[in-house]
Amino acid sequence: MAEQIPFGAATVEFVNNPEPRVPFVLLLDTSGSMQGPPIEALNSGLMQCRDELLADALAAKRVELAVVTFGGSVNVVTEFTTAEQFSPQSLIADGDTPMGGAILKGIEMLAQRKQTYKGHGIAYYRPWIFLITDGAPTDQWHEAARRIKDGELKKAFLFFSVGVDDADQGVLKQLSSQREPLKLKGLRFRDLFQWVSSSLTRTSHSRSDEQVKLENPATPAGWAEIPAGN
Amino acid sequence: MWRFVGESVQGDSHRRDGLVCQDSHLAVPIRLDGSEYLILACSDGAGSERQSQIGSKVAAEQAIRLAGGYLRSGNPLPLATPELIRSWVTGVREELGREAAQRSLAPRELACTLALGVLGPASSAFLQIGDGAIVILQAGLYRPVFWPQNGEYQNETYFVTDHDAEEKAVIEVVPRAVDEAALITDGLQMLALNYVERTAHQPFFAPMFKALRDAGSEAELVDPLHNFLESAAVNARTDDDKTLILAARVSPCGNDAL
Fold first, then answer.
1. S-S: A121 plus which of A96, B87, B196, B209, CB 3.0-4.6 Å?
2. Dist. CA B170–CA B115, nearest whole Å
3. Coil, strand, or helix at residue A157?
4. What digits encode the pLDDT tens for the residues B32-62?
């Protein structure tokens, strides 16, 4: 809650940039199974996401990214920051998959960020939580699922999940009551992040009462598929 | 005597998406029994509806017609109750319904916000549904009569076409003459309003009203206002349509206030 005290760093940040914000939380699986090509593709996807947000003057000022990883433990790698200030560090894959803890952390960070916005008179758009995993949770995840569904009901955020490789799509399906989990085709992280950045850019430009219609990523040419059995 | 100038300009995003400017504005002076009234309206068509520029035009015109009709029937402005002003919302929504039916559209497709100001010699009335702002000079300070109506999220607001628009409408009758008033749509909110203090940015409005008063005629200000709204400095802060109406009373209210 340190951000909320007056004279904090946030005050300077919001005085310099009073634009409305699109908060975006990435929950990234960095467990051991992501080692090798998957984590490399994820890292370069992150860089690309930042570059594409930067290429749009308004999105660069309005979209705020936060990155939470779950590999061995839950780590806040990046606190909410605009693309201008975002320098993705290279993620390393190791350990088990505490997905439930990461989800709870992401939801808590969002609630706090909204308070910070309100305290500084900053308007904001509906936040996004975007989870990418190649496995199954190794911790308790039912409470996390309940909190996601509760947040969806209260329109507190939009929740997306994407399974890579042998991810447990069955668990992902139980996380959200509004959106089917997607399955990444191969390691097309670049295409995924291109879709993410262009969707966020469009959200950051959206006008009064405009629900941004997202492009369907699960087309034959898209990066995702709806897994069989859904 | 009133001096006023207004302009609506297409935003960058509308240009890119092939949408026309969906904002509309209108200012109509009325002279009654030796008193000068000015009625101002602006309306922002919903960005999600491709025909909403029709709605914003109809809404601004009909709101002015209803307010003007009230005055022309000999009703004194200070006696306009909030309930009466609220009935204008119903009138505007019904007109939008008729317009939609004629064009075989759903009323929703004409969704738009509405801001209305009626400035009289001794009192003023204001009505707003949705975002945008009416800013007036009061006791030497510019203040928004209402804070823009947004939901929790920046891209949520209310429209005159909503079934509960009457409830959502905010109304204020000021028992004083207002000598300077501005209407803006949400495209200018970030520039014209201070979100932390929830006030108007004095440095935004003060020089503009000074220019309006100092100009030899309103015509001199048409190009500068248009160029300002199209300027890179403004477009760096918004890519939405933007409307600004400025109105100033240039001769004192006279004796009719006494």
1. B196
2. 10
3. coil
4. 988 999 999 999 999 888 899 999 999 999 9
Report if residue A115 sits inside a domain: yes
**What pLDDT was estimated at residue B258?**
36
List alpha helices for B104-240, DSSP H. Answer: 165-168, 189-192, 202-214, 219-230, 232-235
Token readout for B211 is: 């220019």
Q: What ipTM, to 2 d.p.?
A: 0.75
Q: Is residue A126 part of a domain?
A: yes
- Judge contact between A83 and B158, C-beta under 8 A: no
pLDDT of residue A7: 59
Residue B239, Cα to own-chain centre: how many angstroms? 19
Provide the 3-class DSSP secondary structure of residue B219.
helix
Which amino acid, residue A185?
Answer: K
Whether B17 has its CB under 8 Å from any CB of chain A: the answer is: no
Residue A152: inside a domain, yes or no?
yes
Low-confidence residues of chain A: pLDDT under 50: 1-4, 230
Q: According to the model, what pLDDT value does residue A2 have?
A: 43
Low-confidence ranges of chain B (pLDDT < 70): 252-258
Distance CA B120, CA B177 (A): 6
**Contact list, B201 vs chain A (CB under 8 Å):** none
- CB spacing of B190 vs A121 below 8 angstroms: no
A127 → chain B, closest CA residue: B153
Instruction: Determine, for residues A209 and B47 on separate chains, whether the beta-carbon distance falls below 8 Å.
Output: yes
Enumerate the residues of chain B whose CB falls inside 8 A of the CB of residue A57: 236
Query: Of all helices (H) and strands (E), which one includes residue A18?
Result: none
Residues 6+ apart with CB under 8 A from A220: none
Domain that holds residue A179: 20-209+217-225
8 Å CB contact of A207 and B186: yes
Phi first, then psi, for residue A198 (nearest 5°) are -75, -30
Contacts of A18 in chain B (CB under 8 A): 190, 195
Is A94 domain-assigned? yes
- Number of separate domains in chain A: 1
Q: What CATH number is given to the structural domain containing A69?
A: 3.40.50.410
What residue in A sits closest to B159 (Cα-Cα)? A209
Give the CA distances from residue A59 to residues A22, A62, A162, A200, B236, in Å, rounded to whole numbers and listed in that order: 9, 5, 23, 7, 11
Determine the pLDDT at residue A46. Answer: 93
